[in-house]
């Protein structure tokens, strides 16, 4: 007979009435005193359930002292018994722990799968709900969904085609004006003037074509017209109680979008048109080179084209992401909209089809088309680098890192200089067509929320955090 715990012949063998297993009496009694269960079956067990077995009697010597070899052997025997009991207990606990871990891992894997499925269903439901909130027509063009029952009118389409043909024909042969700013002159630019008046919480700045007025948009619908000559805000407009999110000039007309989704147009100090096609915040606006089409994008995942010849909505297209920025290609045949999904979505202006998607590193904060017709600059929210895209390859050909977040980008007319504005300052990058190299002729520590170029790029206008306009000119 062998003890089920130690594996050694027992000196005082006992057997369990419940299982019939044989144990060394001192070992099983010690185990029962500690655990109250059978070490093999884990059933409840008490000393009353043990039956002492008869075995041949052997005369054991009297306990010796620790000074003799028999005494040491007795101590070693006791230590061995304790180790055998502890080893058996540890093996049982290890087996039980492995089983519990296996069960926990299985449950965790099942929970992850359920969460993933529910998250997918939630996102699909949100997208469907977003579409329902503005949907009025059938889906077309894959990822883009037309929400109205008509596209651009034949008159607008002809206008887009004529504008593209006229501008693209002369773009590459267009010379740099003789009085245009140079990289050496930009090296001497420094802040010279700051407006005495400001627009509270201003977030946008737009310089008109004649470079004599700047449009500023702030909180509570306040829009200020800043006179460059008088160096002050000379006229105030009101777009309602909401925050003005973007501003621009279309000829002599001032246009602004708001956080309530409205787009308003003013001329000679009077509101001449108001649109409310978005079901959420209208985040950005852009004008077509022809001057007859206005575009807006919003958090409702749609972009809208407005026919300015009739002051009506021409078409509305739903995309797959909330949109944050917008811009027309200099030739007018493409429209770009940046989204919180990190994509710059390129659309055909005439049909609304999704022509291409440029993948960025994060939610799009700013975009700007170069006047060379082939480059697009973009910046992602909270990132410090600007990506220069070649639209012919749909790939990034150059990256500019300014070591601080970026809020606004603006190319000037010749496509040589790119102004980069952010809370840590203003940077101007120069691309030399002759050497095909980039340089940094200007770096200013002046915080800028928005930026615009002056006449002949001989001045730069920045919107600071106080809602004032600061002018940088050569010194």
Kindly summarize this structure in a few lines:
The protein contains 4 helices and 32 strands. The protein is α+β, with helices and mostly antiparallel strands.
Tell me what you see in this structure.
- The protein has 475 residues and is of the alpha+beta class.
- It contains four helices and 32 strands.
- The protein has helices at residues 25-35, 69-134, 154-171, 183-186, and strands at 13-16, 22-24, 50-52, 145-146, 189-194, 204-207, 213-217, 222-227, 232-238, 244-250, 253-258, 263-267, 270-275, 282-287, 293-298, 302-307, 312-318, 323-328, 334-339, 343-348, 354-359, 364-369, 375-380, 385-390, 395-401, 408-411, 417-422, 425-432, 437-444, 450-453, 460-463, 469-474.
- The strands form eight sheets. A five-stranded antiparallel sheet has the order 4-17-16-15-14, with no helix packed on it. Strands 5-32-31-30 form a four-stranded antiparallel sheet, with no helix packed on it. Strands 6-7-8-9 form a four-stranded antiparallel sheet, with no helix packed on it.
- A hairpin with a 4-residue loop joins strand 11 and strand 12.
- The protein is elongated and about 120 Å long.
- The protein starts with 12 loop residues before the first strand and ends with a strand.
Strand content: 35-45%
Mean pLDDT: 89
What radius of gyration results from the CA coordinates? 39 Å
**Through-space gap between termini:** 106 Å
Looking at the structure, what is the overall shape? elongated
**Spans where pLDDT lies below 50 across 5 or more residues:** 132-142
Which structural class is indicated by helix and strand composition? alpha+beta
In which range does the helix fraction lie?
A: 10-25%
Q: Tell me about the biggest sheet?
A: 5 strands, antiparallel
Tally of helical runs: 4
How many runs of DSSP E, i.e. beta strands?
Answer: 32
Strand order of the largest sheet: 4-17-16-15-14
